[in-house]
Amino acid sequence: MKVTIPTTSSSSDLRAPWTWYHILIEYPNGRKMTVKRRYREFCELHETLEKQSSQFDTAVPPIPPKSWFSSTVTNSSLRESRRLQLEEFLGRLVYSDWFHLQVVKDFLELREPSQMEFVTPQSIQPQYWLILYEETKRTVHELRVAVLSRRTMTPAEERSTLYKLKKNIQLLATSLSGSESVSSLGPGEIQRRNDLVGKLDCDIDYLQAEIRSQGGTSIEVSSPWNSSGEYSSPQRNQLFKSSRRVLGKSSSTSLPAEQQRLDNHGLYAQQMKTMDTQDQQVESLLPLIQRQKELSMAICNEVEQQNDMLDEVSAYTGHTQHKLQKTRGRLRRLE
């Protein structure tokens, strides 16, 4: 989705005129929508976002300051400068995590369901393909955080998120193979984008398996990628069928039975799950290792103190022996 401010206009109020900024919203399917906002409304949005800045790592994009000695209604240079700055503010807002806040969607008058649901593979342009990919990748990340942190999700939320992700994956993959709009891309770029879609699909399979293991629900959507990560029965029989031509000793596969049913995507998802489990085990050992480190440092400090005390005792012993030798010498002279 692309957001710009191509034009401005003045209000019809002659007593206190103001400037309207025409926000043009362009969707990947070619649809366009215009929203008119005043500078005061931009300030209110910025103030609202500033109050919620603790929720995000990135700062709120700045807006142009208020002018006390000039008006955008009469000063065309000030109006043009403010238009460009507000356009930059919206552009940075759309491509950040702030865009998902409801206050931003209300400001732009974005209504549910999302306009992405009306996108067809033939209508996706190369630049909008990347936007849809980034939105899908961001949704996958948010779902991964929710699942791995054991955050409570309702079945309806699970179904809605998984369905949206599956549909977006299907849309991204289909648009790369059956759309004329990607003809301008080279074969290397198309292959790179196919790899990106394949990785996203594996991540979704892994998250779906995690939700299923936690007693959640799953969504099956037909797509060019096998959503379950397994071969169908005819494919499995074709892959593991016996052959009459045997050269030497027939070798049997060394994979376990549960892995023989998986294709490359399924194996990748299983390996990712195993690695995440190992990471969690390592993280559980960190407190124990930290405690052992603290004990080792305490023992080291104690040993250093004991060494200092032994050095003092050794020095005192040497001093005492010197005195005893001098005393013995005096006694001999007295004798």
Notes on the protein architecture:
This protein has 335 residues and is mostly helical. Among the domains are: 1-114, Phox-like domain (PX Domain); 119-228. Helices cover 58% and strands 7% of the residues. It has nine helices and three strands; from the N terminus they run βββααααααααα. The protein has a three-stranded antiparallel beta sheet. α4 runs antiparallel to α5, α4 (126-148) packs parallel to α6 (187-213) and α5 runs antiparallel to α6 (187-213). It is flat. The N and C termini lie far apart (112 Å).
Fold topology:
Layout: E1 2-10, E2 19-26, E3 32-37, H1 39-51, H2 76-94, H3 102-107, H4 126-148, H5 155-178, H6 187-213, H7 233-240, H8 257-260, H9 264-334
Summarize, please:
The protein is mainly alpha-helical.
Question: What's the number of extended β-strand segments?
Answer: 3
Helix share of residues? 55-70%
> Which fold name fills CATH's third level, the topology of the domain at 1-114?
PX Domain
Shape, please?
flat
Q: How would you spell out the order of helices and strands? A: EEEHHHHHHHHH
Number of helices: 9
CATH homology-level superfamily of the domain at 1-114: Phox-like domain
